[in-house]
Amino acid sequence: MMLGLKEKISLYGFNNLTKTLSFNIYDICYAKTDRDKRDYISYIDEQYNSERLTNILRGVTKIIGANILNISKQDYDPQGASVAILITEEGMPCELIDPSCNKGEISTLRDCVMAHLDKSHVTVHTYPESHPDNEVSTFRVDIDVSTCGEISPLNALNYLIGSFDSDIITIDYRVRGFTRDVNGHKYFIDHAMSSIQDYIDQQTLEKYDAIDVNVYNSNIFHTKMMIKEIDLNNYLFNEDPYDLKPEVRREIRNKLSKEMIEIYHGLNVYDKIEK
After folding, report:
1. pLDDT one-digit tens code per residue, 186-220
2. Residue 125 appears among annotated catalytic residues
3. For the whole model, what pTM was predicted?
4. Which is nearest to 121 in space by CA: 95, 93, 143?
């Protein structure tokens, strides 16, 4: 679904609206032993290294119709990765591009590339996490897509959801600033908007419980999604669920469900119940 009005607004100068999509996903895994936890963190860290994340963000840039000016990427020790891409709505002649920009071509000869984060940029950060007293490990990905002009990050939402194994998804979309038409009339948003869910594929939505918390008069939109069905084949690490007794499988599902519910609501729900 592409954004846009049926009748385009004749603007005075550049479209100064800034549209920002903050996309946050959690992947949950049951890893019982310390070795399983280490193996899971290593696996997920390799699966979503900075090179793969860069390719995902390249895809986002292509979908929204932007052009890459600069890429900076980094893998971290012991785990995690970050990528930042400076983008522009319109293509720019080479002579106008800052010579410190790499235009998306990362040279192996350069130790570091600093990103110039302007009004239009795409960033991603990963956070693998485990705790010795908890058999449930998590992998969090934070993605921010901020654009100015007519292009919108919402057009890449389905692509982003499909690029990760997402048990819990939180999405924030906000339109900032204003632009004017040729008569000087201000526009604080340039497209019809009722819910982020309108831009998510229906088959995807059917897999999740989803709620909206929107502030329409401020052009702030928030959607939270949590996977409905827990298939242990997708959550056990180095273990076959059919080798476990029914009561053990039930206990694992309860632990996974507890973790998801607490992350989904942003509260230690069960601690409050126990008190």
Report:
1. 888 888 899 999 999 999 999 999 999 999 999 99
2. yes
3. 0.80
4. 143
